[in-house]
Amino acid sequence: MSAKADVQLKDFGSIFRLDGKVAVVTGSTSFRTLDLTVDCSLLQAGCSKVFITSRKAKACEEACEALNALGCKGTAVSVPADLARTSEIERLVKEVEKHTDRVDILLANAGATWGAGFDEHPESAFAKVMDLNVKSVFVCCQRFAPLLRKAGTHEDPSRIVITASIAGIGIGTLGANATFGYSASKAAALHLARNLAVELGPQNILTTAIAPGFFPTKMASGLMELSGGVQQLADANPNKRLGMPEDIAGTIVYLCSRAGSHVNGGHIVLDGGAVVKSSKL
Protein backbone atom coordinates (compact mmCIF):
# COMPACT_ATOMS: atom_id res chain seq x y z
CA MET A 1 0.00 0.00 0.00
CA SER A 2 1.33 3.43 -0.94
CA ALA A 3 2.01 6.18 1.58
CA LYS A 4 -0.74 8.20 -0.10
CA ALA A 5 -3.29 5.45 0.55
CA ASP A 6 -2.09 5.09 4.15
CA VAL A 7 -2.97 8.66 5.06
CA GLN A 8 -6.24 8.90 3.17
CA LEU A 9 -9.26 9.30 5.46
CA LYS A 10 -12.62 7.79 4.65
CA ASP A 11 -15.08 10.41 3.35
CA PHE A 12 -13.47 13.24 5.31
CA GLY A 13 -15.91 15.73 3.83
CA SER A 14 -18.74 14.26 5.91
CA ILE A 15 -16.82 13.71 9.14
CA PHE A 16 -18.74 16.49 10.94
CA ARG A 17 -22.10 15.81 9.28
CA LEU A 18 -25.28 14.75 11.12
CA ASP A 19 -27.39 13.99 8.08
CA GLY A 20 -30.73 12.41 8.93
CA LYS A 21 -30.09 12.38 12.68
CA VAL A 22 -32.86 13.05 15.22
CA ALA A 23 -31.92 15.17 18.24
CA VAL A 24 -33.64 16.07 21.50
CA VAL A 25 -32.34 19.18 23.27
CA THR A 26 -33.58 19.71 26.83
CA GLY A 27 -33.56 23.09 28.51
CA SER A 28 -33.24 24.45 25.01
CA THR A 29 -34.41 27.99 25.67
CA SER A 30 -32.72 28.57 29.03
CA PHE A 31 -29.72 30.35 27.50
CA ARG A 32 -31.66 31.87 24.56
CA THR A 33 -29.07 32.91 21.95
CA LEU A 34 -26.58 30.29 23.07
CA ASP A 35 -29.10 27.45 22.86
CA LEU A 36 -30.50 28.68 19.57
CA THR A 37 -27.01 28.59 18.10
CA VAL A 38 -26.59 24.97 19.22
CA ASP A 39 -30.01 24.02 17.82
CA CYS A 40 -29.18 25.84 14.60
CA SER A 41 -25.84 24.04 14.29
CA LEU A 42 -27.56 20.65 14.60
CA LEU A 43 -29.95 21.56 11.80
CA GLN A 44 -27.20 23.03 9.61
CA ALA A 45 -25.10 19.89 10.15
CA GLY A 46 -27.96 17.87 8.69
CA CYS A 47 -30.30 16.75 11.49
CA SER A 48 -33.72 15.91 10.11
CA LYS A 49 -35.52 16.78 13.35
CA VAL A 50 -34.49 18.70 16.46
CA PHE A 51 -36.96 18.52 19.34
CA ILE A 52 -36.74 21.59 21.55
CA THR A 53 -38.03 21.37 25.09
CA SER A 54 -38.07 23.64 28.12
CA ARG A 55 -40.55 24.60 30.79
CA LYS A 56 -41.82 27.69 28.94
CA ALA A 57 -44.10 26.81 26.02
CA LYS A 58 -43.95 30.27 24.43
CA ALA A 59 -40.15 30.28 24.43
CA CYS A 60 -40.10 26.83 22.78
CA GLU A 61 -42.52 27.94 20.08
CA GLU A 62 -40.62 31.16 19.38
CA ALA A 63 -37.33 29.25 19.16
CA CYS A 64 -38.77 26.75 16.69
CA GLU A 65 -40.31 29.52 14.61
CA ALA A 66 -36.93 31.26 14.36
CA LEU A 67 -35.09 28.02 13.52
CA ASN A 68 -37.59 26.87 10.91
CA ALA A 69 -37.33 30.25 9.19
CA LEU A 70 -33.64 29.55 8.42
CA GLY A 71 -34.46 27.32 5.48
CA CYS A 72 -32.61 24.20 6.64
CA LYS A 73 -33.80 20.83 5.38
CA GLY A 74 -34.50 19.67 8.91
CA THR A 75 -37.31 20.77 11.21
CA ALA A 76 -37.36 22.10 14.76
CA VAL A 77 -40.25 20.73 16.82
CA SER A 78 -41.53 22.35 20.02
CA VAL A 79 -42.36 20.03 22.94
CA PRO A 80 -42.62 22.04 26.18
CA ALA A 81 -42.05 20.06 29.39
CA ASP A 82 -41.05 20.70 32.99
CA LEU A 83 -38.14 18.30 33.39
CA ALA A 84 -38.09 18.75 37.16
CA ARG A 85 -40.98 16.25 37.18
CA THR A 86 -40.52 12.64 36.11
CA SER A 87 -44.08 12.50 34.75
CA GLU A 88 -43.22 15.39 32.42
CA ILE A 89 -40.08 13.61 31.19
CA GLU A 90 -42.20 10.55 30.42
CA ARG A 91 -44.73 12.74 28.59
CA LEU A 92 -41.89 14.30 26.61
CA VAL A 93 -40.75 10.85 25.46
CA LYS A 94 -44.28 9.98 24.35
CA GLU A 95 -44.61 13.24 22.43
CA VAL A 96 -41.30 12.61 20.66
CA GLU A 97 -42.46 9.07 19.81
CA LYS A 98 -45.40 10.57 17.92
CA HIS A 99 -42.88 11.88 15.38
CA THR A 100 -40.12 9.28 15.37
CA ASP A 101 -39.24 5.77 16.51
CA ARG A 102 -35.62 6.64 17.33
CA VAL A 103 -33.40 9.34 18.83
CA ASP A 104 -29.75 9.67 17.74
CA ILE A 105 -28.73 12.57 19.98
CA LEU A 106 -29.82 13.62 23.47
CA LEU A 107 -28.44 16.90 24.76
CA ALA A 108 -29.16 17.07 28.50
CA ASN A 109 -28.97 20.80 28.92
CA ALA A 110 -31.66 21.65 31.50
CA GLY A 111 -30.29 23.28 34.61
CA ALA A 112 -30.76 25.77 37.44
CA THR A 113 -28.62 27.64 39.94
CA TRP A 114 -28.99 29.50 43.24
CA GLY A 115 -26.72 31.98 44.96
CA ALA A 116 -26.66 32.62 48.73
CA GLY A 117 -24.16 32.75 51.56
CA PHE A 118 -23.24 29.57 53.44
CA ASP A 119 -25.18 30.32 56.64
CA GLU A 120 -28.29 31.47 54.76
CA HIS A 121 -28.22 28.96 51.89
CA PRO A 122 -31.71 27.37 51.83
CA GLU A 123 -31.91 23.60 51.98
CA SER A 124 -34.85 23.76 49.58
CA ALA A 125 -32.78 25.65 46.99
CA PHE A 126 -29.91 23.17 47.28
CA ALA A 127 -32.37 20.29 46.77
CA LYS A 128 -34.05 21.98 43.79
CA VAL A 129 -30.73 22.54 42.00
CA MET A 130 -29.52 18.99 42.66
CA ASP A 131 -32.83 17.52 41.51
CA LEU A 132 -32.89 19.34 38.18
CA ASN A 133 -29.16 19.28 37.42
CA VAL A 134 -28.52 15.64 38.39
CA LYS A 135 -31.59 13.52 39.06
CA SER A 136 -33.57 14.85 36.12
CA VAL A 137 -30.59 14.39 33.81
CA PHE A 138 -30.36 10.75 34.88
CA VAL A 139 -34.11 10.15 34.51
CA CYS A 140 -34.10 11.83 31.08
CA CYS A 141 -31.24 9.60 29.88
CA GLN A 142 -32.97 6.54 31.34
CA ARG A 143 -36.35 7.24 29.73
CA PHE A 144 -34.86 8.09 26.34
CA ALA A 145 -32.52 5.06 26.38
CA PRO A 146 -34.92 2.78 24.41
CA LEU A 147 -35.06 5.31 21.54
CA LEU A 148 -31.29 5.83 21.70
CA ARG A 149 -30.73 2.06 21.55
CA LYS A 150 -32.91 1.81 18.45
CA ALA A 151 -30.81 4.42 16.66
CA GLY A 152 -27.33 3.36 17.77
CA THR A 153 -25.14 0.83 16.01
CA HIS A 154 -21.60 -0.37 16.61
CA GLU A 155 -20.39 1.66 13.62
CA ASP A 156 -22.55 4.71 14.39
CA PRO A 157 -23.45 4.97 18.11
CA SER A 158 -26.11 7.27 19.51
CA ARG A 159 -24.93 10.15 21.68
CA ILE A 160 -25.75 11.64 25.06
CA VAL A 161 -24.08 14.98 25.84
CA ILE A 162 -24.54 16.38 29.35
CA THR A 163 -23.99 20.07 30.06
CA ALA A 164 -21.87 20.41 33.21
CA SER A 165 -19.66 23.39 34.15
CA ILE A 166 -16.15 24.30 35.21
CA ALA A 167 -17.80 24.94 38.59
CA GLY A 168 -17.88 21.16 38.86
CA ILE A 169 -14.11 20.94 38.22
CA GLY A 170 -12.66 23.87 40.12
CA ILE A 171 -14.19 25.91 42.93
CA GLY A 172 -17.43 27.67 42.10
CA THR A 173 -18.66 31.01 43.39
CA LEU A 174 -18.26 31.52 47.14
CA GLY A 175 -19.16 34.34 49.50
CA ALA A 176 -22.49 36.16 49.62
CA ASN A 177 -23.68 34.62 46.33
CA ALA A 178 -22.19 31.17 46.75
CA THR A 179 -23.44 28.44 44.41
CA PHE A 180 -22.88 25.35 46.56
CA GLY A 181 -25.66 23.29 45.02
CA TYR A 182 -24.75 24.27 41.47
CA SER A 183 -21.08 23.37 41.91
CA ALA A 184 -21.88 20.06 43.58
CA SER A 185 -24.49 19.22 40.95
CA LYS A 186 -22.13 19.89 38.06
CA ALA A 187 -19.41 17.73 39.62
CA ALA A 188 -22.05 15.01 39.94
CA ALA A 189 -23.12 15.53 36.31
CA LEU A 190 -19.54 14.96 35.13
CA HIS A 191 -19.28 11.73 37.10
CA LEU A 192 -22.74 10.64 35.95
CA ALA A 193 -21.49 10.97 32.37
CA ARG A 194 -18.56 8.66 33.17
CA ASN A 195 -20.84 6.05 34.70
CA LEU A 196 -23.30 6.20 31.80
CA ALA A 197 -20.43 5.89 29.34
CA VAL A 198 -19.39 2.54 30.81
CA GLU A 199 -22.97 1.30 31.25
CA LEU A 200 -24.35 2.38 27.87
CA GLY A 201 -21.23 2.17 25.69
CA PRO A 202 -21.72 -1.58 25.01
CA GLN A 203 -25.31 -0.70 24.02
CA ASN A 204 -24.04 1.60 21.23
CA ILE A 205 -24.68 4.82 23.16
CA LEU A 206 -21.74 7.15 23.85
CA THR A 207 -21.94 9.60 26.76
CA THR A 208 -19.81 12.72 27.15
CA ALA A 209 -20.06 16.07 28.91
CA ILE A 210 -19.11 19.67 28.26
CA ALA A 211 -17.89 21.98 31.02
CA PRO A 212 -18.39 25.61 29.97
CA GLY A 213 -16.97 28.57 31.80
CA PHE A 214 -18.64 31.98 31.68
CA PHE A 215 -20.76 32.62 28.59
CA PRO A 216 -22.89 35.78 28.36
CA THR A 217 -26.29 34.17 28.96
CA LYS A 218 -29.47 35.06 30.80
CA MET A 219 -28.73 32.50 33.52
CA ALA A 220 -25.17 33.74 34.06
CA SER A 221 -25.70 37.50 33.66
CA GLY A 222 -26.46 38.26 37.30
CA LEU A 223 -23.51 36.28 38.63
CA MET A 224 -21.21 37.79 35.99
CA GLU A 225 -22.13 41.29 37.12
CA LEU A 226 -21.49 40.37 40.75
CA SER A 227 -18.12 38.91 39.68
CA GLY A 228 -16.94 42.14 38.07
CA GLY A 229 -18.78 42.25 34.78
CA VAL A 230 -18.14 40.92 31.28
CA GLN A 231 -15.01 42.92 30.51
CA GLN A 232 -13.27 42.21 33.81
CA LEU A 233 -13.98 38.49 33.49
CA ALA A 234 -12.74 38.51 29.89
CA ASP A 235 -9.54 40.33 30.82
CA ALA A 236 -8.86 37.78 33.58
CA ASN A 237 -9.14 34.85 31.16
CA PRO A 238 -5.95 33.48 29.57
CA ASN A 239 -7.37 33.96 26.06
CA LYS A 240 -8.79 37.38 26.99
CA ARG A 241 -12.42 36.71 26.09
CA LEU A 242 -15.50 34.89 27.31
CA GLY A 243 -17.25 32.06 25.55
CA MET A 244 -19.21 32.61 22.35
CA PRO A 245 -22.16 30.54 21.09
CA GLU A 246 -20.04 29.04 18.30
CA ASP A 247 -17.65 27.59 20.89
CA ILE A 248 -20.35 25.31 22.26
CA ALA A 249 -22.11 24.71 18.95
CA GLY A 250 -18.95 23.47 17.25
CA THR A 251 -18.10 21.21 20.19
CA ILE A 252 -21.58 19.66 20.19
CA VAL A 253 -21.43 18.92 16.47
CA TYR A 254 -17.98 17.36 16.93
CA LEU A 255 -19.10 15.12 19.78
CA CYS A 256 -22.26 14.00 17.96
CA SER A 257 -20.69 13.42 14.54
CA ARG A 258 -18.41 10.72 13.14
CA ALA A 259 -15.46 12.91 14.19
CA GLY A 260 -16.29 12.21 17.84
CA SER A 261 -17.22 8.55 17.54
CA HIS A 262 -14.38 7.36 19.81
CA VAL A 263 -15.01 9.88 22.59
CA ASN A 264 -16.81 8.25 25.50
CA GLY A 265 -16.83 9.08 29.20
CA GLY A 266 -14.76 12.24 28.89
CA HIS A 267 -15.55 15.93 29.06
CA ILE A 268 -14.47 19.00 27.12
CA VAL A 269 -13.70 22.20 29.02
CA LEU A 270 -14.87 25.36 27.26
CA ASP A 271 -13.49 28.23 29.31
CA GLY A 272 -10.47 29.66 27.51
CA GLY A 273 -8.16 28.31 30.23
CA ALA A 274 -9.88 29.90 33.24
CA VAL A 275 -10.05 26.78 35.39
CA VAL A 276 -6.40 25.95 34.63
CA LYS A 277 -5.33 29.45 35.62
CA SER A 278 -7.30 29.30 38.87
CA SER A 279 -5.66 26.03 39.87
CA LYS A 280 -2.01 26.97 39.15
CA LEU A 281 0.42 26.75 42.05
Characterization of the model:
There is one protein chain. This protein has a single domain (17-278), classed as Rossmann fold (3-Layer(aba) Sandwich). Helices cover 44% and strands 13% of the residues. It has 10 helices and 7 strands. The protein has helices spanning 3-7, 33-44, 57-68, 86-97, 123-151, 180-200, 218-226, 230-236, 245-256, 274-278, and strands at residues 22-26, 49-53, 75-78, 105-108, 158-163, 205-212, 267-270. A 7-stranded parallel β-sheet has the order 3-2-1-4-5-6-7, with helices on both faces. α2 (33-44) packs parallel to α9. One of its GO terms (molecular function) is oxidoreductase activity. This is Ketoreductase (KR) domain-containing protein. Keywords: NADP, Oxidoreductase. Pfam families: adh_short_C2.
Overall, the morphology is globular
Tally of discrete structural domains: 1
Distance linking N and C termini: 50 Å
**Strand runs, count:** 7
Task: Write down the overall mean pLDDT.
Answer: 88
Number of continuous helical runs: 10
The ordered string of helix (H) and strand (E) elements is: HEHEHEHEHEHEHHHEH
Q: Summarize the main sheet.
A: 7 strands, parallel
Determine the structural class based on helices, strands and strand pairing: alpha/beta
- What integer value in Å does the Rg equal? 19 Å
Unreliable residue runs: none
